[in-house]
Structures are given as C-alpha cells and as structure tokens.
C-alpha cells in the first residue's frame, strides 16, 4: 500500500510537470518548427515501428531530403530526444533532424521511447533496441554497404550512447553502427545529483540541468532499483571503450552539470586511441540551450556552431 501511494504521489507530480512543460514549450517548439520549414528543404512523415509487445508500436518521425529515393535508405541517422526520461518530447529536435536531412541528403529517423514512471528502466532501452532492429531489418536490408549512425540529446544522448555501446556489443554480428553523436548527455547514473557541478561554476546553475532534488526524482522514476545504476545500459560512461563505434562525438556545455561526466567519457575514449573522438564543450550556454532560441542571441550563435560541427562529422561518417 505504501509503495502504491508513493507511486501515485510521484505520478501526480510528474503529470503536473508535464503540463507545465507542455505550456512553456509551445512557443519555442513552434519557433523551431517554423525555422526548420523555412530554412531546410525536407519532408517529414510519421511512422509506427513495431515493438516487441504485440499490440504496441513506437512512434517516430522520418525526415527525408528532397528527391529522396528508397535506394538511398542505406544511409540513416537515428535520433532520440531529451526528456529527463519522463517528458513526452518527440519533435523537440525537429530543427536538428531537418538540417541533417537537408544538408547531408540522408534519412533521419527521430524515434520516441517509453517514459517513466509508467515504464521504468529498461523500457526505454528496449524501445531503442526495437528501433535499431527495425532499421536494420527493413530500411537497410537490401544493402551490404549500409551505414547507420545514432544521435541524441540529454536523456536521448544517454540512449544513443547505450545503443552505440551495450546494444551494439550485443548485436554486433547483425548490426553495425558507424558513429554516435551525443549532445549534453547523462552518462553515469552512479553519481549523485548533489555532487554534480557545472564547469562554469555556481553562476550557471540556474540554467543548467534539473536541480538536485528534481534530478533525484527523475532518476528514481527511471531507475527505481539502485542496483541498476552501474548497468552499462543505464550508465554508458562505464562501458568498455572497445564497445563503441569508430566515431564518437560528445558535445556538451560549460553551464551544464552533466558536462564533467560526459567529457570524462570522451577523454577515456581518446586515451584508448583506437577511434576518432570529438569532445567539445560549448561555451557560455547551459543544458538544452539549443531549443527554441531566437536570432541574435548567444544561444542562437552557439546552436549554429554546434549543429554545423555535427553536420561536418556526419558528412565524413556517411562519405558525403
């Protein structure tokens, strides 16, 4: 009974937070969608991906460049959005996905995943695995030269890194990932939220990731069992460097409390010396800075720089 009451209490809080987030994100999301339509030539279509559960599908948006032909489906980027593992935010990366599809000329699949507390770990990871399997089984099955990369923002960056390490290791005979791009990701769940500090100092905390008590609640929703904190499907920063693909890019911010753990992973991969690693810290901005920015702001400039770097990396990965 006590556990049921605690779940209901947390569910109520999360529901209220989702409502607040939905209201506050209306204008920023609309701004990004409008810019994506004006700046980048592409089409977007909703697809439903079969899951391991017989009567459930995984929603995704497929971004295609102009004059796209299905015989070019052998090049695709799969992206996962940020959410704190609790917010339904599919579509929040529309500007990034449209830009990649338009400027590189490849398909971009922006995939959803189940959220906590309704579905805790490993529900989201299972959805990631199902999406990967579907892509390799359907969109690239006719090609022996298929190249698939993954990307993600915040919690989606966590899932992208998991896809490129623990899941890649499990399926390496059937599925090969060429690269992973993670934007301000959480990579180590064993660290206490209270111990995390933004590189830029206390003055940046107000614009950083969730405050410790909120981050602790999100973490508890996603990982109710502390024994799972060190699982590499939850903490990709603890994975063996050999599990990662040849190209790894980790892009974070100096005003983000998650930056130190992300950069620690980048340094660990660089020390391995067997892959191309890009570890960049964007200066003067904080967690999630690239969503809904307005022209003329520092956030706008930094977003353009970060996305341009991502496009450059992906062009090399896909040989464009």
TrEMBL record:
<keyword id="KW-0378">Hydrolase</keyword>
<dbReference type="InterPro" id="IPR013094">
    <property type="entry name" value="AB_hydrolase_3"/>
</dbReference>
<dbReference type="InterPro" id="IPR050300">
    <property type="entry name" value="GDXG_lipolytic_enzyme"/>
</dbReference>
<dbReference type="InterPro" id="IPR029058">
    <property type="entry name" value="AB_hydrolase_fold"/>
</dbReference>
<dbReference type="GO" id="GO:0016787">
    <property type="term" value="F:hydrolase activity"/>
</dbReference>
<feature type="domain" description="Alpha/beta hydrolase fold-3">
    <location>
        <begin position="78"/>
        <end position="289"/>
    </location>
</feature>
<dbReference type="Pfam" id="PF07859">
    <property type="entry name" value="Abhydrolase_3"/>
</dbReference>
<protein>
    <recommendedName>
        <fullName>Alpha/beta hydrolase fold-3 domain-containing protein</fullName>
    </recommendedName>
</protein>
